Amino acid sequence: MVPTIKTLLSISLVASLPVAAAADPKPRNARPAPAGKVIATYSGKTDIWGQDCQGGIYFSPNNQARAWCSEQSENMAAGTWSVSADGTLCQDLTWFYPDGSGAGSSSSEPLCIQHVVNGWGVMYRSWPGDSEWWPVTSSNSSFKRGYVFQSDVNAAKNKLGL
User: Fold this and answer.
1) In a 3-state reduction of DSSP, which class is residue 149?
2) Which residues does UniProt assign to the signal peptide (predicted)?
3) Is 124 in contact with 23 (CB distance < 8 Å)?
4) Could you tell me which residues come within 8 angstroms of residue 15 by beta carbon, excluding any fewer than 6 positions away?
């Protein structure tokens, strides 16, 4: 079965929502997160996707991004990430999947996540269309240092002939 871009985007968006943290309304006195703080939070780390996916997205220090989801383990995504001056992180991915004897691909729309900090410097993030803000702290973070799913991404790439 060839997954549609809508299916892959739905999986990645839903899976990227944190499961260990409680959401809040936008913090009072919130201001845009400094780009350096956002970069330090993501760079060299994998953001673990919970729910049914059991995968995640790796944000490399050279602004490359790789994503994988165990639910569709023969698929993988490759692309880039960047952070704007106002602390908005955008990821631009192309999903690759088995298609006959080769690999098919679907470019997704860029996904941009807003980041703000409250008066105490605690960073929060919010996804497009979501009115809730999720705290990003060491006690509830979905980030793991390193490229957690590297072997899974490489296995999918090899199987796809990429």
Assistant:
1) coil
2) 1-21
3) no
4) 49, 50, 51, 52, 53, 55, 56, 69
- 44-91: per-residue pLDDT in tens? 999 998 877 889 999 999 999 999 999 899 999 999 999 999 999 999
Reference 81, options 126, 53, 44, 117; nearest CA is: 44
What is the phi-psi region of residue 35: left when phi exceeds 0, alpha when psi lies from -120 to 50, beta otherwise? alpha
Query: What's the domain range around 116?
Result: 35-160
Residue 14 within any structural domain of the chain:
no
**Closest to 143 in 3D by CA, of 11, 20, 9, 1:** 20
Counting the structural domains of the chain, the total is 1
69 within domain boundaries: yes
Tokens standing for residue 33: 């997160």
